[in-house]
Each structure stands twice: as C-alpha cells, then as structure tokens.
Amino acid sequence: MAVTEAEEPGRGRKTYDLEIIKWLYGFSGPYRKYLFLSLVLMLATAALELAVPYIAKIAVDKYIYPSWRVASFGGESGKKPGAEELENKLLALGPSLVVELGADSYLVDISAIGNEDRSNLEKLGIAGGEKFLVVKPEELPAEDRAGIGGIIDRYPAAFSEAGGAYYISYGALEGLGRGDLLTLRSGEIREVGILAAVLFSCLVGIFVFSSAFTYLLNYSGHRIMHRVRTEVFARTLRLPQAFFDKNPVGRLTTRVTSDVNAINEMYTSVAVQFVKDILVVIGVFAVMFYMSVELTLFVALFTVFLCFFAGLFRMRLKTVYRDVRRSIAKLNAFVQESVRGIVLIKLYNREMQNFERFKDANRENFKANMDQLWVYATFRPFIEFTSVFTVAFIIWYGGLRVLALDITLGALIAYLYYVRMLFRPIMELAEKYNIFQSAAAASENLYDLSHEEAEPSGGIIDGPVKGRLEFRNVWFSYNGADWVLKDISFAIEPGETVALVGLTGSGKTTLVNLILRFYDPDRGRIYLDGVDIKELDPEFLRSRITAVFQDLFLFGKKLSQDGQDEFSRSIKIEEIKNNGDVISSGEKQLVSLGHALSRDAGILILDEATSSIDARIERNIQTALRNGKHERTTLIIAHRLSNVRHADRIIVLHKGEVSETGTHASLISHKGIYYNLYELQSEMQRFSLLAD
After folding, report:
1. Same domain, 478 and 373
2. Shared domain check, 399 and 378
3. Which CATH number characterizes residue 670's domain?
4. Structural domain includes residue 185
5. Which among 91, 162, 161, 82 has a CA at the least distance from the CA of 125?
6. Rounded to an integer, what distance in angstroms lies between the CA atom of residue 85 and that of residue 83?
7. What is the 3-state secondary structure (H, E, C) of 91-145?
8. How high is the pLDDT of residue 3?
C-alpha cells in the first residue's frame, strides 16, 4: 500500500525553518531582477488601487456635491472662545476659498479645510447647514463667462453677490432649467471629466501593471521551480540504494512533481500577493486615518476582531485540512492497490470485502470533507456578515460625521470602498492558508530530500578491467543487526564463469548488490583486479559491469523488428510503454539480455535472467554464453540448477555463508547441500512428467 501523509516521517519543525527559505531563495539567483521589477510594479499597482477611491472623493467633495457654506462668527461681542483663531485661519486661505459676506460672515469651501477645523465650525455653531454653489465670473474661461452671466441675469432672485462672486443655494438650483444648470456647472463638469479620465487611466494602469507583474512572477516562478525540480531529481539520482529501500516510489514521485507545484502555487498566488495585500492594508489605514481618525479607530477594532477570529479559524483549519489530506491519501492508496490487484480480487472472490473496505475509507474521507465544509461554512459567512455590518456602521456613524462636518460626503464614499479593500485579504485567508500549508510541508520534504547524503563518488575513473573479483572476509547487514552475509571469501578469475546457488534468502542477490556498490560491506573488502572497489568511482565501476536481473524495467523506447537471433524473437509491437507491460516477462528478459551482451563490459552478471524464458531459447542462450565465456567474467545466479551445470565453478551459499564450492560433478559426488537441491529439483521434474 502507498505511504499516506500520516505515515510521513516527522520533521520535528514547529515553524517554517529559515534555512528552508534561504535554500529556496538560492534558486532565484538569475531571476532576482524579475522579482525586483515585479515588486516595483506591485507597488505601483497598490498605489493606483489606493488612488481610485480618493479620486472619487475629490470628485464628489469638490465638484459634484456643493461644498460652500456660510460661516458666521457673530461680531466681536458674540465670538466664542477659539472662534477668532478659527476666523484667522479661514482668512489665511485666500479669496479663492473664502468669500467675505460682511458682519464677520463668510462663504467657505468646506472641502478645502482640515478635519479639525471643519469639526470646530460645527461644534462652535459657526457653520450654517445650507450649501451653496459659488460662481466667480472673472475666474471663468471666456467661452463660459457670457453664458453664465446670462443665467445670473435671468434669475436675479436666485443669486446673491458678494466680493465679485455670485452664489446660489443648493435648493434653488432645482428652479433652473436643465440647459441652464449644465451651463452653470460647466466648469465642474469639465473637472469631473478630467478626474474620470484620470480614474480610467488608473484602472488601465492597474490592469497593465498587475498583468505585467503577474506574468513576471509566474515566469520567474516556473523558471525557479524548474531549477528546484532539476536539482531535486539530480540529487535523487545520486542517492544510495538504501534510501530507495526505505522510501516508496510514490512518495519520491510526489516530491518531484506535486511538491514542486505546491511551492510554485504558494510563490505565485500567496507569497507575493500577501506582500501586496500588506501594502494595501497599510495604505488603506494611512488614508483612512488622514480622512478621519475616530472612524478609522472603529474600523481598526473590527479588523482586530476579525484577525482574532481568523487565527482561531486557522488553528481549526489546520486540523481538518490534515484529516482531509490523510483521508485522501488512504483512499487513493486503497483504490490504487485494488486496481493493481484486481486479478487476485476476482480470483479469490474478494469483490464484496474490498468494496466494504472501500466504503469505510470513503466514509472517512466524506466525514473529513464535511468537517472542512463546516469550517468554511462558518468562517466565510461570518467574515461577510462582519464586512456588511462594518459597512452599515460606517454609513450610520459616518453619515452623522458628515452632518457634523467631521468628514465630507466624498470621504464617506471612499471609506466604504476602502473597507471592502481591507476585508478582501481576510476573505481569501482560507484559500491562501491551505496553499501555504501544502507548500510549507512540500518545501520541508524537498529540503530534506535535497540534503540526504548522496552516494559516495570520486576515485579511479579510468583504466582497463581484466575481470578478477575477490571477496575477502565480507560481512553485511541491511539493518545493522541481522547478518545477511557472514565472512564471505572467494575469488573469480578473469574469463571464469561462476554460479551462485542456494536457498531463497541465502544472500545471492546481496552479493551482486555489493559488487555494484549499491551497498558497502560492513566488514571486509571486495576487490576488482586487486583494487578495493571503494577506491573506484561508482560510475566507472558500473560501466565495466553489465547485469540482467529477474525484475526488469524497460524505459519507453522503440524496439527493433528484426530480432531473429538467439537473444530475441520477433516482438510484434512498435513501442514499449509503462515498463513494457504490453509485452511478456520473457520478452523483457530477451530484450535486456540482448542489450547486456551487446555492451563491451568485462564482467557479466545474470541474476535469474532467464527465469521467464522457455527451455528452447534458454538452451540457445546457454550455448552462446559458453561459446563466448572467455571474453568476460560471468557470474550466474539461478535457482534452476540445470542452468549452472556447465559453469567453471559453483559456489553454494547457505544462511549467508559459503557452504560448498566446486564443479557440478564434484558437488554431486560430495552429496551435500547442492546434491540435495539437485535431487529435489530432479524429483519434482520427474513427478511433473509423470503427471502429464
């Protein structure tokens, strides 16, 4: 069964290790310029997003909604404390923003003064509630002056004049015709048009910049992940055989594929977007504080409450997300196991039993998904409710502040937009946290894999190989406790054909693994042409040895159609795929034998290499091996003793020790373990013939 996430070895990390971040960052070297450019574009995008509501605020406060009001200070005798100082501040603004009406009364552009001064005008009872539209003919363009002057002349009762400026109350504007109203407000209409063009330009800029930095991030992210995947796979190829004995193929495949993709998704969808969200949140609070400290503090309280709730959600989500991953892994493993073993399931009528086990695994997955659904169903509506409640609160409380002149109407509209921008990252927290959790686990797995101790390398990399092999007092254990080989000593001379026989588990294949340096002896030495194989580079050693094993793997490739010699039959297929599953085991062995014998290697190792080949072709192969046996040193491992009768020497292994050595004839006459094995196989063969 495949290893599930629950069975993954624990890493013991409580936080995302800084070493892992440094390791991942090291892959970004050639692409850091793209990262820097992406950051610049991201900052520009965030600035434009913040500018959009503020431009709308300016349009509303300055041009759409009349912002002039009467401020009456009541003369010297009636001035309240602080009124004189406030009056001096207003007069300092200049005639473009203040029009004197006489008797310490002024028309003031409320949108142009600070929040504190606006609030003081209201608190001191200085500002009137009526709003006015002010027209200054001398400041108008020549093409507008005549038309607006005509309107003033036609409605003398609606307009008042002071200091060269004409003003009309907001309520009186309804008495003007539509054409006159548009003419009167032509200046504001032009300014609104300009601001609309600026706003559209901001939106275009947001689209262009966000598209650019998204492309750059994805491009650099894929290039970086390409380097990570290459590095991890290259490292995997250099790992010792002992590592692959402990780690299933499915787990390693996940490392190179799914884990790298998880990191890329975090990099492109979470990490940089998180930076952008942080910048936007900081910018939103800065602008909101500038517009109204009091209202922003209320919003900040709601935000802190949401962040606290999001923290609780994160802890709960971590648990349910782990359960979902575990249940999916178990379900996938069971389905894979069932499909691969479908022949045995049908053979032993286990369909219903397997189906019941599947229902249990499926029920566990359903429960885990329902737990996750409940968390999402609670979190998202709560965030949405809080967001809407905050908007409603801003409309209520902000509306009161507008009436109290604490903020402007445009600022209130901008506030509503900014609140949506503020809560958007919190709304996306669930999805981003899932991605981060997957990427954090994936990066830890990849980091650990890339830092596994590689197979030893270096040493002699060239030179002739005569083919003399010698084992000298070799001991070996896979687990450090149970000895598989015990004090093995023998030598194979160049050009000699030696057979290894023995019961299953006697250590025959282990000897081959040691020769190929898939493992190193715990004790003793192995020599090739008098040189300790530990002094040879593993690649050089294996290039001088060719081996064919019982369990074969054929990589996807084209096959020759004219294989008519003793090593292959006419295989009526054009391509091998999926480890050659479209051809038989015997045909796989034929292909592998053909490739092995075509290599110019000094040593040939056959480990049950003809176990799936019929007797006629096997005899031809044995004849070919005998005819060319002096060209290479040959080591044969076989359970069928008829395959080793013609070997120059036969070594019998029993419980990890060399029990007998000699030719076929001498071992038969010795009547030891080899004799008993031979007689047992001969008796079984005779019984089989009688049964037929």
Report:
1. no
2. yes
3. 3.40.50.300
4. no
5. 82
6. 5
7. HCCCCCCEEEEECCEEEEEHHHCCHHHHHHHHHCCCEEEEEEEEECHHHCCHHHH
8. 42
Which of the residues in the chain have pLDDT under 50?
A: 1-12, 14-15, 77, 558-565, 567-580
CA 613 vs CA 210, 561, 569, 598: distances in Å = 63, 19, 11, 19
Identify the pLDDT of residue 199: 92
CA distances from 226 to 260, 271, 440, 473, 632 (A): 9, 18, 18, 47, 43
pTM for the model = 0.66
289-320 residue pLDDT tens: 888 787 888 888 888 877 777 777 777 777 77
Dig out the tokens for 188 from the structure: 């504001």
Same domain, 24 and 107: no
State the Cα–Cα distance between residues 296 and 284, nearest whole angstrom: 10
**Which domain-ending residue is among 390, 423, 450?**
450
Q: Are residues 277 and 337 in the same domain?
A: yes
Distance CA 209, CA 40 (A): 9
- Residue/partner pairs of 679-685 with CB below 8 Å, 24 or more apart: 681/640, 681/641, 681/642
pLDDT at position 204, please? 94
Q: What is the pLDDT of residues 68-107, one digit of tens each?
A: 888 887 655 456 677 777 778 777 777 778 888 877 788 8
Provide the pLDDT for residue 390.
82
> Which residues form the domain of 568?
469-691
Shared domain check, 381 and 513: no
The answer on 27 and 100 residing in a single domain is no
Q: What is the pLDDT of residue 691?
A: 53
Number of residues assigned to the chain: 692
| Residue 391 shares a structural domain with residue 338 | yes
Looking at the structure, tell me whether residues 434 and 512 fall in a common domain. no
* CATH code, domain with 422: 1.20.1560.10
Kindly report the CA angle at 383 between 381 and 385, in degrees rounded to 5?
Answer: 65
Distance CA 456, CA 650 (A): 32
As given in the structure block, the two tokens for residue 256 are 């190179």
At 10 the pLDDT is 45
Q: Which residues contact residue 622 at a Cβ distance below 8 angstroms, ignoring those fewer than 6 apart?
A: 643, 646
